[in-house]
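Exercise 7.
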Amino acid sequence: MKPVISFVLLGIASLAVAQGGHDSKAADALKKLSVLEGDWKGKQNFNNPGGPAMVGDITLHAHAVIGGRYFEELLSTSLPGRKPTDSRHYIGFDSAAGKFKAWWFNDTSNIPMQLEGTLDGNKLVLMTSPGPDGTIAGPTFRATYDFASDHALNYVLELKTGEDWRALFHSNYTK
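Solution. The predicted structure, written as tokens, is:
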């Protein structure tokens, strides 16, 4: 019976190692984003050149999920005369790459957008992730989370056009 128990325990230990174990660097990096946790609300101002002003009400609920390995953002923007949007963002930390990684799911695409970036002071800057060959297929986006304080978040989503960046929208949140 002892050999069977030893074999089972060895198998369980092997599975735990194969799953990567606990990564304290990733956990410490995510703690730096703890200001993101909570309920935010604000205005989302769209860049609409030559068109009428487009300003929506936006809500964001962010919390740690999956054993504290990710932050999940639940977002919704309401514009007059339109159905509210539905988006989910997941942000984790890849300690081997030394970068935050994000997967954005929304109601306008069947596949998530993948981004990566770094935290510099109070700004988290994420950009479209390159594929395995090192190139980016499709448009390049840059998202900047500027944590102005524990209760104020300024957010900008930009699109790279040639060598320039064009703001698609900016959002100002309060907690």
